[in-house]
Records
---
Amino acid sequence: MNTTPTAHPMVAPAADLSVLLIGLLKGVLYRDGDERQWAALLNLQARVRDYVAVLNLDLVLDEAEGYAFLKSRPEPADDDSSPCLPRLVARRPLSFAVSLLLALLRKKLAEFDAGGGDTRLVLSRDDIVELVRVFLPDGPNEAKLIDQIETTINKVAELGFLQKLKPAGGAAVGPATFEVRRILKAFVDAQWLAEFDTRLATYQSQLAGVSNTKEGAGHE
């Protein structure tokens, strides 16, 4: 009698599937963050899509940019008889400051890609501060303004669109630098940017009006 144990080829894929699903439910999967998991996702993406569809989620997979994440499916239209299911991935409202920085980083990324060359956009803290400060009203307290911008930078990093890099050369400390994560392209598309440009123009007009009012009052 042949007593050789029977191989179970589905054990490893099943384990990989569980690890993949747990990881995706927790956050974004990057190719450069875990190449083994990325390879498993490419092999098992059909099963991942089928599984998350039960949870009213879609898998967003960008092989060229090297990232994958889950997002809620669009809500049914008013004339659609499909049931409106609860959202597993909650929507998070963004402050104007965070929206502004995301839009500016998205534009910077588009300009960077148009120039060719390196695939990683790395900006210093001072670079990001200068991107934002030209859109904010001047105030008497420069340090407070910088602190507000740094708070916004940290919030964008928490959302996963910026990654703080370690100091170069193994130094314990050094100037703060951030990589703009390319997943930002999936969240901020051309239409969003166009709409934000309109809101930004309105915001700048309001700032100009406030500034002119202050100047006029100062001359009375």
---
Amino acid sequence: MLEELQVEVTSSPDVPFLDADRTSTPAWLIRLACAAHAAAASLAECRDLCEWFGVSRTRAAIHHWYQSFAEYYDQNFTAGPYRVAVDEKQIQLENEQKVWLYAAIDVDSKVVLHARLSQNRGIEPATTFLRELKEEHRVGDAEFLVDGMGYLTALAKTDLLGDLNYSDRNIVEKLFQTYTMRVGRFHETWNGSQLSAERWLTAYTAYYNHLRSHQALENQPPIEALERESSI
């Protein structure tokens, strides 16, 4: 598990995303708990994981670590991708509340460039999403791969270039599968609210970009592939 989650056991006390007193919790164990929670483990399972290593911590403490991890790593980079896949998918929260998850991925590095939840679907929400993406990254010359005419309109409204493409967009479809699986597993721990889901989305995206190894990238995290391409 340690190797798969890109966590090295060392005596270093450094936890870059935690500035406050970390008590006696080993730094590597904090990073492991955060990676395990993002990868699939519940807070209770992460608590049990810590206890297995001889450290007793509450679920609330682990949740604090995880949110601090997300805030530290949240999109602290600006990319200049060549090809970007965008799409949206409906997900269900508590009490049958349904929202739309929008995401954009660099096809080559597999980095998630932007992800957000929206109450609605259509040209206007897609346009808003693309404008936010344009503010965060250098996508003015990128080729956008989309699967619907509505996105072509949204691209035109934001002065971006794109084309209908159904074959090179598997990466965004796989990401949605992962998001949907995690939402189904953890939405109860968020009390089902959209705000809680958005916080989790931020944290998982940070894990996906910075820690999760990817077979297509020689088992390196996407952000490292982006750095190798000198696209940051």
---
Amino acid sequence: MKKQFLIACLALLSFTTIPFISQAQTIKISGEVSTPLTVDAAYLQKFPQTTVVRKDRDGKDHTYTGVILSEILKGAGVTLGPELKGENLTKYLLVEASDGYQVIFALAELDKSFTDRTIILADKVDGSPLAPADGPYRIIVQDEKKPARCIKQVTAMQVHFVK
């Protein structure tokens, strides 16, 4: 009986506190950019929506909807397209989550002139907003074998040079 009571209390606590802790409403884009940017839901609505199908840990397909990440980065003046050559190929994007988790993408991984892989900043899964534990924003990497870089609860993105 005590175990069931404890489980019920933990479940109630997670529903009442986690959404307030984990839900960052904006994403700050900074670093080696010409225009530091704060991204929110209204900003994302200006872009065409793209879908990516990705399997979860149980092998079930889910359809994520969001904006191609490189399109968002262009708004911040990130070096992409014809300028992504020479020393600019040493630039990378550091993506941070609300819990401190971080992942890195080389800018070439995000540029359509280098790859056909689609990487989006998603705000919906299967037609609904992301669950509080995953969102409100999540990076989804198409066709990557492991989901380790499909970072949840994105709060910041910084562009840096490799030193």
